[in-house]
């Protein structure tokens, strides 16, 4: 099968997200200028550089109570700060609850039954007990082609690691089993690992 996206795929559901899998989930926390916390999961997320450490996430939709974007992007544009919380399997229901479209005045931490704690290097909340959290200062927002497609890049200024996720000096993802986003309404979970030696090592 071949199709041009501009012509449509002819399938019951769009296969695009199912092709680009698995995708890590950035559970993005932010705070608006009035101090209201926001929390939302984004699967167009990844790390993009080591030194200094940098991450990105893309927002691809709009809310009626925001100006052509979503709460996360509006908050980050206003304050220049955000935090990426790592999603573990045990938090799947809370993560899903935080994806609800709610009024911008609603604190998704409370809505999802999560406890917000203050970050160290930025004026933003993070999820208490998350396996890891990356405190970020905005470096750039890039507008992409299409309606309301925007990418936020941030430099990581502080990193929280949950103590039980460290084994022999290694951040061991099998201790918390990270969630990954697939296509449609599907997710996956990392339960096992294998290693490959690079040819140049």
TrEMBL record:
Coiled coil: none
Signal peptide: none
GO molecular function, one term: oxidoreductase activity, acting on the CH-NH group of donors, NAD or NADP as acceptor
InterPro entries hit by this protein: Flavin_Rdtase-like_dom, Split_barrel_FMN-bd
UniProt domain Flavin reductase like: residue ranges: 18-173
TM regions (residue ranges): none
Name listed for the protein in its UniProt record: Flavin reductase like domain-containing protein
Organism: Falsiruegeria mediterranea M17
């Amino acid at each position: 099968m071949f199709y041009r996206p501009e012509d449509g795929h002819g399938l019951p559901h769009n296969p695009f997200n199912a092709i680009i899998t698995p995708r890590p989930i950035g559970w993005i926390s932010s705070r608006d200028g009035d101090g209201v916390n926001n929390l939302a999961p984004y699967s167009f997320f990844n790390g993009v550089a080591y030194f200094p450490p940098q991450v990105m996430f893309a927002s691809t939709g709009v809310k009626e109570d925001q100006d052509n974007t979503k709460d996360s992007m509006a908050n980050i544009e206003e304050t220049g700060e955000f935090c990426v919380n790592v999603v573990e399997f045990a938090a799947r229901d809370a993560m899903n609850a935080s994806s609800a479209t709610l009024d911008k005045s609603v604190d998704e931490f409370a809505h999802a039954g999560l406890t917000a704690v203050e970050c160290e290097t930025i004026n933003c909340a993070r999820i208490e007990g998350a396996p890891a959290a990356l405190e970020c200062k905005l470096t750039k927002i890039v507008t992409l082609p299409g309606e309301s497609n925007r990418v936020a890049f941030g430099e990581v200024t502080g990193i929280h690691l949950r103590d039980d996720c460290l084994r022999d000096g290694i951040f061991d993802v099998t201790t918390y089993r990270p969630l990954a986003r697939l296509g449609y309404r599907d997710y996956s979970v990392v339960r096992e690992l294998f290693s490959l030696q690079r040819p140049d090592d």
